[in-house]
Amino acid sequence: MIVAIACIGILGPSVENIIISLCLTRWAEYAKITRNLVNLEKQAQYVVVARMSGASLWRIIRRYMIPNLRGTLLLVIIQHMGDTIITVASFSSIGIGVQPPTPEWGCYFAECSRFLTNSALAVDPSRVSDFYHSCVIKLH
Questions:
Q1: Is 127 in contact with 121 (CB distance < 8 Å)?
Q2: Model pTM above 0.70
């Protein structure tokens, strides 16, 4: 995370620079997962049989390894999407991410936090319940 913040600080705050910094800092995790999956697949029975039958290395990779690794890697990427969205939003909320004209969760959070610190709702908790009940009554 520190390296990503340093990259964004050097490159400047923008969507492209956030993507570049996250790719630079997270590629090793995906490489490690891919390496472990390939090592598991190398020991699979169908790969051993293909190797014994004289198939070339590229044929084994293209025909057997990639189709079996694709689903697992896609699942890992989808699982990390939520973490990436939260990371981008946290960069934007502290001011080093996406800048305010661009709609993004971190920008909205930063604007709302400024509003809530100056709001009467943040000072008086009883008004929060009054506001909640008035919204519930209006929705019904």
A1: yes
A2: no
